[in-house]
Amino acid sequence: xxxxxxxxxxxxxxxxxxxxxxxxxxxxxxxxxxxxxxxxxxxxxxxxxxxxxxxxxxxxxxxxxxxxxxxxxxxxxxxxxxxxxxxxxxx
Length: 91
What we know:
Elements: H1 2-17, H2 25-38, H3 41-77
């Protein structure tokens, strides 16, 4: 178990550094649970950080999706309202 969790922590860390897609949240939650019980402070921090990185791109997608939907609904109510968004603060 220890070597498997170590492998996934190192693999997720390497993938994160290259901006490649990270493993699933299910797998990373398992890694976090393991290191919460058996890891030192640095390993726990890295596991939690990488779990957050799994969710990061999805969070941005849903924020943009919600924002766009709201703007379209407003546009239907007020045709003069432009549908423009400055999303630079989300990156």
